Amino acid sequence: MIRFNCDYSEGAHPLILEKLAQTNLEQLPGYGLDPYSLQAAELIKQQCQTPQAAVHLLSGGTQTNLTVLAALLRPYQSVISADSGHINVHETGAIETTGHRVVTAPNSEGKITATQIDRLCQAHWQDDNPEFAPQPKVVYLSFPTELGTLYSKQELLDIRRACDENNLYLFIDGARLGYGLTAPGNDLTLPQLARCCDAFYIGGTKLGTLLGEAVVIVNPKLQKDFRYFMKQRGALLAKGRILGIQFLTLFTDNLYLQLAEHANNMAALVRQACRQAGFDFLCDSPTNQQFPIVPNTLLKKLEQQYVFSHIEPVGKDKTAIRICTSWATRKEDVEQLAADLQRLSGK
Amino acid sequence: MIRFNCDYSEGAHPLILEKLAQTNLEQLPGYGLDPYSLQAAELIKQQCQTPQAAVHLLSGGTQTNLTVLAALLRPYQSVISADSGHINVHETGAIETTGHRVVTAPNSEGKITATQIDRLCQAHWQDDNPEFAPQPKVVYLSFPTELGTLYSKQELLDIRRACDENNLYLFIDGARLGYGLTAPGNDLTLPQLARCCDAFYIGGTKLGTLLGEAVVIVNPKLQKDFRYFMKQRGALLAKGRILGIQFLTLFTDNLYLQLAEHANNMAALVRQACRQAGFDFLCDSPTNQQFPIVPNTLLKKLEQQYVFSHIEPVGKDKTAIRICTSWATRKEDVEQLAADLQRLSGK
Amino acid sequence: MIRFNCDYSEGAHPLILEKLAQTNLEQLPGYGLDPYSLQAAELIKQQCQTPQAAVHLLSGGTQTNLTVLAALLRPYQSVISADSGHINVHETGAIETTGHRVVTAPNSEGKITATQIDRLCQAHWQDDNPEFAPQPKVVYLSFPTELGTLYSKQELLDIRRACDENNLYLFIDGARLGYGLTAPGNDLTLPQLARCCDAFYIGGTKLGTLLGEAVVIVNPKLQKDFRYFMKQRGALLAKGRILGIQFLTLFTDNLYLQLAEHANNMAALVRQACRQAGFDFLCDSPTNQQFPIVPNTLLKKLEQQYVFSHIEPVGKDKTAIRICTSWATRKEDVEQLAADLQRLSGK
Amino acid sequence: MIRFNCDYSEGAHPLILEKLAQTNLEQLPGYGLDPYSLQAAELIKQQCQTPQAAVHLLSGGTQTNLTVLAALLRPYQSVISADSGHINVHETGAIETTGHRVVTAPNSEGKITATQIDRLCQAHWQDDNPEFAPQPKVVYLSFPTELGTLYSKQELLDIRRACDENNLYLFIDGARLGYGLTAPGNDLTLPQLARCCDAFYIGGTKLGTLLGEAVVIVNPKLQKDFRYFMKQRGALLAKGRILGIQFLTLFTDNLYLQLAEHANNMAALVRQACRQAGFDFLCDSPTNQQFPIVPNTLLKKLEQQYVFSHIEPVGKDKTAIRICTSWATRKEDVEQLAADLQRLSGK
Fold first, then answer.
1. Using an 8 Å Cβ cutoff, are A104 and A81 in contact?
2. Least CB–CB distance from D96: residue in C101, C128, C309
């Protein structure tokens, strides 16, 4: 079976394993204070062009989201998210467990708009008793979104404006950040994105590391005591080195973006093959996740050899699936999938 | 100004004040262990025909909802509610602060259905990874709803069936319970409602007491250690007697239902007057809350003499308002309102 | 049976009931925005000489402690308390439920010292990894303490100094504040105490109201959005008037301090009688709680007619008990107790 | 500099890195459902002789403690721990953040006794109002303790008896479990320890893995829905394989115990050298942590070449330090330390 169901089916990029092995017997301080973690943080700040930022390395996406939001919100404040946002659909209510409501806005291809944010805030503040509802304080976006789509530069600037006008922080979940930055049509650079945010993170787990997400707290007012939050939530690894070494490797010689670009290229081949097979798509994604709508009979045959994620039934006869590529996707596997699609669809 | 904006504009029914004064200098045990509280609990169990129930007296609705749900849910479980439910719109995220997600279903005139509950549960359990979302465990209803409407006996039995099939508890917010039980067209008795629930409460604050809600935990499995939950949430009054005395008074000689019936009768007069004035209604409520849609020009004139709650704009020129009656509403005030409506509407 | 076990055995002072009855049918806004609540707040600010303070009325002590501490602490911060502090021994872990550790220091007659606070803070900040322990941020004191004792002006100023030097807030639990302010030997006035604190509260439940505690947030930086905290914790009563009316009555014509003084006088008679009976005391309390150590044989006889609280066994043959007086204690009851003590002790 | 300050200064045992590299490009399911994780769980159950247990792999100690305790405790329940317990001194109040109080008992060489547990429970249940304090429900022990000491079989059986009689669960923190099982004088086997517990964990981070702790939930009643707890706390790694592969390696061919034994042997050499240097010890530890009390002048010289942890000053002139060995400690480094100790102490 060839797995196209997600972007974390393999271990780590070989250079990362190599670097872990090379440094393995070095004796280093724990808890993220080793030189590799510090260098990784420096490198990330440089590449983000945010010298005043604070960078912390955590293990996974849910942990990162709950820890950052715990630090950004007071107990009575809420976070605004697309209804399709990861914190709303795939984290077992981790944010609510932290005490906060996720206020959702209906997504359009995975995205929300500045106007939606404005309206939610107006509804809150114009109520006779604003204090009877959680106070919106953070906007949570994903770049790329759960549906693989991207905010344009203008859309992000509009959202930043909405945040400023409504006294909100902007926090971007970049679990798949690299796939977005290297996607065809993307008009945002890493420094531009960083400048727009109060905090964001650069995902490793879904882009070539064994584990790890690099949080960049851009807004200096939000940096204080963040290590307390990490420790308290079980997010401060004793051997922080393993995160530092991985991110140092990713951010050396542009590896991070190269891996992402490879995945996007593989996804483009998948997209093309799906189009040729006559499939519609749930949405128009330029990144490593593709969401074709596949006839069930054909899907059944494909699934004898490939693993996909099922997203939702479309009508009686079709299913929207997710086909994911990654840094590790082999071109021959994609070509085989394309050939099978052509053969099975008769197109 | 005459206040029709809510059902808690006055203090308590005079019989309650009288009884508080009569007993004032009696020396009694604290924390709900006084004879009045115990008698009130017994009386409530009798009138609910639930001899095995546990009854506890708390202060207000939000406190009651958060304390009961803290006791009914494990940390990863969620409560299903109408999107219009009090816990979703008027409690500052108290349930989320307690660590739980409120999973909402779109309301129809304030109500949700057994089918909606079934679907939410199916969606949860049919997911490849149910553990990636909070597990639904409680259904929260209001009787009457926030829009003054009522579940019929059949609707409630259907929801009970959905709860049984999906392994859910049923918890009914009865902040205005009496208004529902005495409403024209209601086909549910207090014992029938009690038998349907795992837990519910009988509201005092909005029905004639200074404060107080009587929680009835019908399901014996949920009764253990509830006083710990109360104390921990600040819900165990030192002078519990003041709750006991009030509920004892309300449940003696049928006072509770008489007060509710009076309010419903007053609301019927309001409804009639609104109809004669040609107003539409946001929904068809047989209870003490009426939701007429009033032309803004007329509303402005009315509001020189009356206080209402604004619910939402309807089109450009009208506003849905809430007109509330209560145990304390004077017939002459309603008649004056009716006369003013007739005069101002010219109908 | 005559109850001396606590100071909340009766209802409310008759003037309070009278005022509740007088105003009962007035239609007033809810949620603490009625004129009585606003006047009570003004009066309290005047008498505290803290014009810039914010005053909020809540229901009970545990509710007040958890709500105020939720507002004063970030998630990783802790509160320092005497091990005998109410938040540590009588609130079912309400503070921990709110997410915070109570860091305890051993009490001396119910009190802690500036030096103890300094040491706890030094221990925290001198650790190699301060972020591995909760960060101390609030000092919680009771005035009077759980043992009825008082901080002197100098002790309180020293603690204020410790708070300033260690960047801590000072929060005083005044559930029995009046008993302290009117105690013989007390050298603190209400304005002096208020000026020392970041926040404190004036207890009503244990000093003559049906329920209610008046929180005074002295530090303007801590006042923002406090009503959100109240609502979220179920601490915002719909009929806030009943708190407003009660505190307005207490703070008119000096009633609050008069009631306290009466209780202290009654306690002085108790103390004298206990001394004459030859009892030692657990501590030297000048306020309404007395802690005599009573031979068990004698205690058994007394308890045929009186109710006391048992505190702890002292040796094999004696028990430290609490004898409480209150605004409602009748002189004839105290005299009867004194006579019985004399008779039974043979002294 | 040679680091003896902790047991997590290096990466992972080379066999683990090798196995990670070998399997790196295999495509596997995520979230702990890969065959390596499942095999590791099976192997652990076999070696514990607990076929009915559930095994889950988490990242680190704090995460494991907070997740397990969240699953074992209801919101009003507390955990009993030695005051020196990791959850009390090194986790930033993670347990309190989860809503629970840590009730501490004074440790004796890092340990608590069945009698202390009995007394705490009696104090709770004999109170007039048990519900005014958190209800004790779990006993948390460490094996070995924070001071490197061990519970004997009899001590553990006594504690199990106390747990049974007081209706408590027993949870053992085995962050350094292997060091205990292989220590000279230890009389407990892994199956015996497992049988005594309701839940415990086998630490990897401090015993040769990059990260990872294997939780063994022995009591079937506590196993339900544990993956919800993990996911909600950010403790379910997408690439769960990296934990599975590591624990599979550790539990194959007895590697885990061999590594521990090596560390204990190295620690024995350290202990001997310290004794020869004339040092006293804070406690008598047979495991990989040694706590000699070292003259400050000598310590200063040693610290030009070695890194230790400082525990506490002893008198004016000495300091209790921690010297840790691990699977990775090189015999030549220990011999050099011994030689330096001899030289510097002149003994």
1. yes
2. C101
